[in-house]
Amino acid sequence: MAFRAVMSRRVTNRSSDIGARWMSTWWGNVEPAAKDPILGVTEAFLADPSPSKVNVGVGAYRDDNGKPVVLECVREAERRIAGHSNMEYLPMGGSVKMVEETLKLAYGENSEFIKDKRIAAVQSLSGTGACRLFADFQKRFRPDSQIYIPVPTWANHHNIWRDAQVPQRTFHYYHPETRGLDFASLMDDIKNAPNGSFFLLHACAHNPTGVDPTEEQWREMSYQFKAKGHFAFFDMAYQGFASGDPERDAKSIRIFLEDGHLIGIAQSYAKNMGLYGQRVGCLSVLCEDEKQAVAVKSQLQQLARPMYSNPPLHGALVVSTILGDPELKNLWLKEVKVMADRIIGMRTALRENLEKLGSPLSWEHVTNQWVDP
């Protein structure tokens, strides 16, 4: 019995040693991830003790003292909803009211597509979540497709479609020498892409260049998309924040709609309502008819289910309260124009001061960005 007990302890100890070695190597091959090129700058800013530091990382609106701004329409909406709602889950598709009001901004107040119920739309985790949902939808239902992404673009676009395992191609966009749009090369890439390709387009205020096509150039692009049967997916993160006029900033989308395209749109309220931390957005896909829209929405919800199940409530209530009330909506339109005009004014001042200092370079691009020259 003693011999058996000793052997049992040896076997047990040996098993424990083997188990310990396995457990110690579970994550031994994990290396530190590379810092995000945008968020990493903010981390460095927070760690810097200098009192005169400036954060040039995440693009968030600040007042003259460098402090975050909360719009008055948002404060009023929060006052109205405080204590008047429960904390139950939203449906997988999110707040119906918020989605309805959001579609009006993108497709038009009296859009025939909304009336005909041809739009499949769900609340998303801001614009990033909308892009990711669409990337997964593209992978699931067009598995042999790829996505054409402009050079340059918001860095996270590449991460989103990469992690959704959608092959990426690029198309010309910015011309460094002229600091403007490389329209000729852009059109060549659209023409040379295989028929039926997916293209990621920035609806307005192209990130990071701020360079947008003119209205006429958008029309030429739309015509060529039609000829090639391409699909346009618009990322619209700055509606209203670019020019101060949400209608003007949606012009690119309206042009494609007028030309009969079926499109997808990612919308966000981070910039134009200052709801950065609330993560309120919307993904919409224009379909051939109501039946197809119902099917597409059901699949978008199924994709959302294992990701996050349901979108958050508070930010959606803020948005729907503002857009659903004429008084608050008018206040928002005034406030977003104030923000846009201030940014445009700061660009003008920057250019004027650089020129007064005798810079030999041309700084016209600084005032030409975001608004047509």
TrEMBL record:
Keywords: Aminotransferase, Pyridoxal phosphate, Transferase. It comes from the Eukaryota. Its cofactor is pyridoxal 5'-phosphate. InterPro entries: Aminotransferase_I/II_large (IPR004839), Asp_trans (IPR000796), NHTrfase_class1_PyrdxlP-BS (IPR004838), PyrdxlP-dep_Trfase (IPR015424), PyrdxlP-dep_Trfase_major (IPR015421), PyrdxlP-dep_Trfase_small (IPR015422). GO terms for biological process: amino acid metabolic process. GO terms for molecular function: L-aspartate:2-oxoglutarate aminotransferase activity; pyridoxal phosphate binding. The keyword Transferase applies. It catalyses: L-aspartate + 2-oxoglutarate = oxaloacetate + L-glutamate. Residues 52-369 form the Aminotransferase class I/classII large domain. Belongs to the class-I pyridoxal-phosphate-dependent aminotransferase family. This is Aspartate aminotransferase.
